[in-house]
Specification:
By secondary structure, the chain is mostly helical. About 50% of the residues lie in helices and about 0% in strands. Helix 1 crosses helix 3. It is globular, with a radius of gyration of 13 Å. The two termini are about 20 Å apart.
C-alpha cells in the first residue's frame, strides 16, 4: 500500500472513531448493501470496507477484544464473512 492511501485510510479511521467511537462494521454502516453486491467492490461500500479492514488489521486489539467487538455487533447470517480475511478472530 502506498503512503498516500495509508494516510487516507488512517484519516478515515480517525473520523469513524470521532463520530461513532469505533469503526462501524460494514454490515452496520451500509446494511442495504447485500453481501455479494458489487457495492462492496465498486460502490460506496468499497471505501468503508477498506477502512474497516485497515482498522481491523492495524488496531492492535487482541483476540478477546475482537470477539467482543463482533459479539456486540454480530453480523447478520446473510453477511457473515463479508470482508473476511483468513481469520477475523486472529
Amino acid at each position: 500500500m502506498d503512503e498516500r492511501t495509508r494516510e487516507l485510510l488512517d484519516a478515515a479511521v480517525r473520523e469513524q472513531l470521532a463520530t461513532h467511537g469505533r469503526v462501524l462494521p460494514p454490515w452496520r454502516a451500509y446494511p442495504e448493501i447485500e453481501r455479494y453486491s458489487i457495492g462492496w467492490r465498486m460502490g460506496y461500500g468499497e471505501w468503508h470496507l477498506m477502512v474497516w479492514w485497515h482498522w481491523w488489521e492495524t488496531t492492535g486489539i487482541y483476540e478477546a477484544a475482537r470477539i467482543a467487538y463482533l459479539q456486540a455487533d454480530e453480523p447478520p447470517h446473510e453477511v457473515a464473512g463479508l470482508g473476511r480475511g483468513p481469520d477475523l478472530a486472529g
